Amino acid sequence: MKVNCEYGGGCDLLFGTKQETYELPSSSTAWTVGELLLWLAEKHLKTTQENFLQGDSVRPGILVMINEMDWELLDTTNYVLKENDTVIFFSTLHGG
């Protein structure tokens, strides 16, 4: 299954790209956003996991959108991904 990820607001620095299409490994169960987060952190994160994850979710200050909809409306980490979904990670925290 393919999923499109876009990174902005500093999240692009965490992953070294502004957008990427990933081919997720085959699984006997459907992929959730929570599983995607852990997989991204393990396989594609260019820095420590603490900069992206807190527990089993993203750090506070990282906005997550799925197909241009706030993931809070889609059951956050429990959302079951579909082929060619677009997941956007955007940091709202900025240093000064």
Automatic annotation (TrEMBL):
Which pathway does UniProt place it in? tRNA modification; 5-methoxycarbonylmethyl-2-thiouridine-tRNA biosynthesis
Which Pfam families does the record cross-reference, listed alphabetically? Answer: Urm1
Per the record's keyword annotation, is Cytoplasm included, yes or no? yes
User: Does the keyword Magnesium feature in the UniProt annotation?
Assistant: no
Alphabetized UniProt keyword annotations: Cytoplasm, Isopeptide bond, tRNA processing, Ubl conjugation pathway
Where found in the cell?
Cytoplasm
User: Coiled coil where?
Assistant: none
Q: Which residues carry this modification: 1-thioglycine?
A: G96
Question: What kind of modification does the protein receive after translation?
Answer: C-terminal thiocarboxylation occurs in 2 steps, it is first acyl-adenylated (-COAMP) via the hesA/moeB/thiF part of the MOCS3/UBA4 homolog, then thiocarboxylated (-COSH) via the rhodanese domain of the MOCS3/UBA4 homolog.
A GO cellular component annotated for this chain's UniProt record is: cytosol
Q: Where is this cross-link: Glycyl lysine isopeptide (Gly-Lys) (interchain with K-? in acceptor proteins)?
A: G96
Where primarily located? Answer: cytoplasm
* InterPro entries linked: Beta-grasp_dom_sf, Mopterin_synth/thiamin_S_b, Urm1
Q: Which GO terms describe its biological process?
A: protein urmylation; tRNA thio-modification; tRNA wobble uridine modification
**Protein's job:** Acts as a sulfur carrier required for 2-thiolation of mcm(5)S(2)U at tRNA wobble positions of cytosolic tRNA(Lys), tRNA(Glu) and tRNA(Gln). Serves as sulfur donor in tRNA 2-thiolation reaction by being thiocarboxylated (-COSH) at its C-terminus by the MOCS3/UBA4 homolog. The sulfur is then transferred to tRNA to form 2-thiolation of mcm(5)S(2)U. Also acts as a ubiquitin-like protein (UBL) that is covalently conjugated via an isopeptide bond to lysine residues of target proteins.
- Entry's family note: Belongs to the URM1 family.
Stated name of the protein: Ubiquitin-related modifier 1 homolog
Q: Which organism is it from?
A: Sitophilus oryzae (Rice weevil)
**From which lineage does this chain's organism come?**
Eukaryota, Metazoa, Ecdysozoa, Arthropoda, Hexapoda
